[in-house]
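new request in #modeling-help
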Amino acid sequence: MDEMKETYIQEANELLENLESSLLSLEDNPNDKSNIEQVFRVMHTLKGNSSMFGLIKIAEFVHDLETIYDKIRQGEMQLSREILNTTLASFDHLNKIIIDSELEDTDNKENHVRLIAEIHKFINKTGGVNHGSDKLREDGGDVALQRLNDQSITDAEGPKTYHIYFEPNPTIFLNGSNPLFLVAELAALGKNIVVPHFKHVPPLENYDPTLCSTYWDIYLESSCNKSDILDVFVFVEGDSIIEITEMPYCR
Amino acid sequence: MAKTILIVDDSESIRAVVGIALRSEGYEVIVGEDGQHGLELLIANEQVNLIISDLNMPRLDGIGFLKEVRKLEKFKYLPFLILTTESQETKKMEAKNSGATGWIIKPFVKEKLIAVVKKVMH
């Protein structure tokens, strides 16, 4: 992992070099859209890398800074001298905290708090901080998988029986999804009876193999809860028909 | 035969982290530095079984890359996961509507990554 951390620091330094050069160009030409995009992208990458390496303070800081440039590139804000000054000060600060990610140095800690306050002032002028790392932690996909890891089949209440009706959107294949994988994943949650239905399959002359015409009834006995079952369908739930009914459990 | 996964991200750190995690599970991994590079690699390596791609990249971004992939007859139905820090529903839906299979939200742990990979590729 030390080697990985070195890769992170090396790349962070390269990103900061890019950031510096784009910021200097912006000083001369604050309306240069390609430089605004470049600044945003560099910040975005630095944020993503930092969060992947668990460097949350850096990730949150860069996220807030990135929010300003996201608003500028979307035309919701204008790049001002004050914003540029704060960004340049943030650039200097980032150069220091890349190797002091926990802000152990008192000066770094003070600068961090001061710069975050400055950045928030700019963001609040146009409508609030969308705090990245909180959002990331709250994200549905994240939470869904976390639930899968933490609590799926260990519920103390004992097994329940569910009836699950799954009718995929006919175009499900166009997203690279395979409904059979989902049925298999569901079946792996417990004892099961899987009943495929072919009533919607048209006669051969009208048959289009790129469309899914099969649908399923699945009976599942499992200690998992309803949300664990829904997690199986997390990528398709918006456009498929999924009905989950808890049935009286009988041995 | 090991399945091959194409990782496309402009961040060397992310490519390294994802690559190490996937290789440790026995997958073959090839890496592209942006959408354009990813597209070239895909066309040159027709054995790719899954693509994992970042969204914000220079030259050709993730959505543009995804759309190009879906235009290729051979890869029309290939599982394609987007790798993103974007937690907004709109971004995920934009990818979904452009043909993405699903998404992996950064930051993630190895177990989470593997769980999503196994969900879309058996």
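bot summary: The radius of gyration of chain B is 13 Å.
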